[in-house]
Amino acid sequence: MRSFVATAVILLLLLACSAAQAYTFTPPDPDIGDLAHQYYYVWGIEVTWDVNPDPIYEWVNGASLFIHSIWNWDNAPNDLWIHLLDDAPIGLTTGYDDQDGVDQFLVEGILLVHYQDLSMTPQDLWYFFTAEQRDTLNAYAADGVFAIAFDPDCHFYNCGISLDVGTERIEIPEPGTLTLIGLGLAALGLIRLRKG
Questions:
Q1: Which residues of 70-92 are buried (b: 16+ CB within 10 A; e: fewer)?
Q2: What pTM was estimated for this model as a whole?
Q3: Cα separation of 48 and 144, whole Å?
């Protein structure tokens, strides 16, 4: 009896989640203007995964930003701030800040990463979102748009930027399914009490 109830509960829980999905986004200008130092950039991204919980939706469980072969144009001190923003026009927009040494997005969104003193030798940079940053991405993406913002304070050459997002599909169980899960868990609890 115990194994039957346990199996039933596990099967019901498995029904609530299904296969993972993967999405890759690239900006309209793949190297984002080579991240020139006199500008800041906002890459507005339209969400392509299902954020509508009716009753199945997708939840971001992984995200990473990749910058291919980035290098600084000289060996001077340099900074690159990258933020996650809640909203922006879809596509790529730029603003002028003339390498002022200040994070243009200091009070906007959340800081993903701050790179300092990147070398003149090309290198690949992978940045993996933390659990807290993934939760923020889920919140920002709920309305269908989010953005990645870059403020380079030095000139960086690169060979392309991309964002990878992994999601899991989650089904919100019907009330009857929730009742069955609750009964199964209660039965397991009773079995454990009797054995104890």
A1: bbbeeeeebbbbbbbbbebeeeb
A2: 0.79
A3: 8
